[in-house]
Amino acid sequence: MSIIGKVGKLARQAVVSDSLLEKTVSPLVNKSVEGIENTLNNNVKVPDVLGINSVEAKDILEKLGFHVSVLEVRKPNKKYAKYKVGEIVDMEFSKPNVVLGGIPRGSVVKIFVADEEIISKSGSWMRKVLDND
């Protein structure tokens, strides 16, 4: 090793000791690791509750830590025709994080139910589509 290398090594050792590194760097690393673990543990995959009774679906989602809003759909849609009154016909929630595979606990998940009229109209609409094919 050259003299400049030896002097540089001594200077680094004199300026930054192991105890100083332990006191300053270790807490930062530990805090970062804890933050990453909390983020990973805080993200949950939203289960598909389509076709499940609204009370049961709300209970499932709330047990996972989500805030749940149960709403009624106002317009018929052919995809609602296969469901019964009181069942979840649609869901809305923020886009899941690709890396973490879910959304944070505490996020709002909207679940939608349809009344008999909407389901009936959705079925009629579906029959029209099928008859035209």
Question: What is the element layout, followed by pairings?
Answer:
Elements: H1 3-15, H2 18-42, E1 43-44, H3 54-63, E2 67-72, E3 88-92, E4 103-104, E5 108-113, H4 116-132
Parallel strand pairs: 2-5
Antiparallel strand pairs: 1-4, 3-5
Report on the structure:
- The structure is a single chain.
- The chain is α+β, with helices and mostly antiparallel strands.
- It has helices spanning 3-15, 18-42, 54-63, 116-132; strands spanning 43-44, 67-72, 88-92, 103-104, 108-113.
- A 3-stranded mixed β-sheet has the order 2-5-3, covered by helices on one side. It has a two-stranded antiparallel sheet with strand order 1-4.
- The chain is rod-shaped and about 90 Å long.
- The model has no long low-confidence stretch (mean pLDDT 80).
Helix-strand makeup class: alpha+beta
Cα separation of the termini: 83 Å
- The order of strands across the largest sheet is 2-5-3
Average residue pLDDT: 80
Summarize, please.
The chain is an alpha+beta fold and 133 residues long.
Tags for this model:
133 residues; alpha+beta; two-stranded antiparallel sheet; 4 helices; 16% strand
